[in-house]
Design a protein that fits this description.
alpha+beta
Length: 135
Amino acid sequence: MQNDRPLVSPDMERCRQDIFALLEHYDLASAVCLVNEAEWGYGYHLPATWNAIVDDATLPLGFRIRAKSADLGHDRAHALTLGAAHTICSLKDFGQQTQAWMSDLLRLLRRAGVQVTHRSFNGQKLPRLISRPPR
C-alpha cells in the first residue's frame, strides 16, 4: 500500500521506489515514511516469502492474509501465518514506539517555546481495514 495521493517531489517518489525494490530484493517487510521540507509520504511493503501477506489491489488498502492449508499443507500455512503475525506485531510496536518518541520530541519543542500547530492527515480520517477497530 502506498500514499493515496501522488508525491510531488520526484526524488521522494524515486527514493520510495528504490526502497521498495531493496525490500523485495532482501525479502523484507516494512513500513516506510519519507519526509522532506514540503511533504511526507508513506508506504507499506508487507508481502514476503516467509509470511502470508499478499498484495490484493481489489481491497481498499491493497493487501490480505492468505494461507490455506488445503493449498499449501498444514506446516507451510502455519509458518506463513506465524510470519504474518510477526510482521504485523512488529510494525504495530514500531508505530507505537514512533508515536511515543515523536510526542516526547514535540513536548520538548513546546517546552523550548516553539509553537507547533499540526493537523494530522489534513484532518482526514485514516483508512481502516475493518469497519470497527477491535476492542
